[in-house]
Amino acid sequence: MDLQALLEATLAGLGYELVDLERSGRGRLLRVFIDKAGGVNVDDCAAVSHHLSRVLTVEGIAYDRLEVSSPGLDRLLKKERDFVRFAGQKARIKLRVPVDGQRNFVGVLRETRAGKVQLEIDGRLLSLDLDNLEKARLVPAI
To answer: Which of 19, 103, 105, 123 could form a disulfide with 71 if both were Cys (CB 3.0 to 4.6 A apart)?
Structure first.
């Protein structure tokens, strides 16, 4: 089982979602970003860190340091369900291949289905392929 799949399964069993996983150049630092309905607090991060340290040891996954945190207000959007969950919120999207000569967009997430997300920008809807997304993040309300 790869690390991503192991973390997803373990966190789901604890009631959390794996938002993102980062490994340092040599894989010695693991950063795990988690979320759950209602948000994540420090106690959640501590509990997950404690649990994961045991799971990683049992599974023989070598690391020097484990960091567990919330995804923050500018949460990364990766999966189709992320776009569905945060419909109605503002997002910053960067594309791999330009659409109408543009790669960067900021707008309100609308409907998401069949591998496409609708982004409302200045009153018009733009349909973007999720496969073409390089990076997408929520834009925190000010």
So the answer is: 19
